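User: I'm new to structure prediction. If I give you an amino acid sequence, what do you actually give back? Let's try with this one:
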Amino acid sequence: MIDGLGRGMPGAFGDGGLALRDLVMAATVRIHGPEGGYDPDGPSGSFLGSGFFIAPSWVLTCAHVALQGEVRDVTVVFETGPRSGETAVAGAVVAALPEAPPGGAGAGWPAPDLALVRLSRPVDHACVYVSERPAKFFGGEQVLYSGWTEVGGRLKRLSGQCAVQGTVGGWADSDEQLRLGGDVLPPGISGGPAVDLRRGEVVGVLKSQLLGAMGGTSIAIDRLRSLPVPAAMAGAESDDDYQAVFHAHDRYHSDRHFSRVGTGPTWTDVQSSLATGAATGADRALTPQQRVTLLGRLAELPPPVSTHSLLDLLFRLPNVHSVDRYPAPRSWRDGLGALYETRGGEAALELVLRYCMSVISAERPYVTHTTAAAEQALWDWVKVLADGQLSREFRNEITRLWSAGRHRTDREQRRASPAYGERPREGERPFVLLELEPRGWERDSYDWRVGVGRHSGEVVPVAEDSRGTPGHSLRTRLTAGLTEAFRRCDEPDSPAMLQVAVVQALLGLEVDVWQLSPDEPPLGVTRPVVVRCSDQEPPLSEDEARERRARWNRTWSAAMQAEIVDCEDGLRVPVPTEEELRSLAYETVPVLCRYGDRPDGETAAGLARVVRGGFHVALLRRGMDRPDAVCADFHRRAVATVAEAGTADQLPWRIQELRRGVRAGRTEMFWSDGVALFYDDPHHPLPGSGQLLEAP
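Assistant: Good question. You get back a string of structure tokens that encode the predicted 3D arrangement of the chain. For your 696 residues, that looks like this:
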């Protein structure tokens, strides 16, 4: 239905719904190509689709809309008010998810299919309110949509209602979408907003229509969390597009709601008038006015240092359980949304205020001249709310936290003294685990799982696929899951380790040379990448378990020494028997000079003897067999590298340094090209293995 919603439709609007529709349509824009301007009187060839203002000078749309012309420049057309006439402003796509379709130009754009457009000059305009709730807790059955389409030879604004009918894609798939039905989504509507009618907040971006049928699909708004993370620690808000956009978004809505200028309803006013149902969780611990105030004050603070640090902060809050949603929270507003699944009542408000106290005391990536004042303003807001509604015991608790933390200005002090709980000790950082399982009945086909391993031994799943992925498609198919897992673990300038668990015959798989995108270095250059053996072993005897524990602990506490076990004077020799291997010192690291890419039976048997001999760390020299090669230099440098690393916890980082050196053209490191590190950490057993050894 054009320019309105029929009152006879299911879920027809009341006054609050009509006001919400006006706010949504005021922020909805047209996206045109850059060439030749646009034609306000007709659907010229420059019209690409719809979009909406997500923050001042920022437009969100679909990647397949904004990049349709295979250039990054667009024209954004909108109205600043009723009967104000149209304004056209140049813009540029600064980020897209993905940046290009895997099939190349002309191929369909896979989800998440989102693009951020930044305007080239400042203009006055309206912005939507974007939900901070994870998509998994979307609470409405009806959504309002808005966009542009051709009607009678002219481009017209359009709005309507759809019902959420389920999802397309799995729970941890990067291409998951909401299925919409109940109305026709015409051409041109892609890129427009999808708004939860119960809460009055944007929850998605329209992606596609169903050809010849009612409805289409929508991308959850929280997929924006997958935007690229800066490689180095941010030094300013503008260093991270995601943080810059949502800080500007939250300041915009806080400023507009409390401004004395203007007479029309704000998004907060409309949200207050909408029916909210029987929600009792932490999302209803705050009124819309209190929420917009809190988000505005959080937006004045520097963002979290990393997703990992934010997750760590959330885990330490009392009674907070799983916050590992896909995608994981990234900003302070996301962290607030992660609390919304908890129960309501006084405990929910206490949880929100404890979260605020953790934010006040959190480590900062940078500080500005306003940071101290922003912390004070957030504390003042917390104190007023607690004094009016919560117990004396709780008020005393947060006052102690404020008093203890107000003098901590040094970053290291903040890192060491979180508001709640204790930070993990060094060596307890999470890691990313990639498990590849070959499908024996399908040649070169794999099931896979990506998870985040924690010091507790738990592996939290991030993404998986048991439908069989061809070997040549593994890198492309795994990119989204690995990127999300890295974001949950990485700290600025300190990337997390990637552990690759494969059957023994695949230990030569060169995951370390994969590039997740064409402009990124290989994985082994950006982070430590090690391999593990996923073959099931027979249960260990008590003596075997004791010996393995002793060997592992020794490599962590004493200087390691390398031993070449399959090559003498340039000639291949069998790996010693298990008994001979067990006679080696506990701090020994075996080196298999002749391992190769696809080990033959003897090589595989040799590595099996090394594993059964109790060794958890070994160097494997991959690559084509070198029957005539002189191996003396490799032997000499491998022995030196192990000695220089010192202990086992340092060896993965030393191998990463060598891989960086090879890529940088440092000839003295060329000897290490193709080396893999077998690193089977017994304190983080593979899921289902049951082989957990005591900590050293």
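You can read the tokens as a compact description of the fold. Here is one thing that stands out. Confidence is low (pLDDT under 50) at residues 1-12, 690-696.
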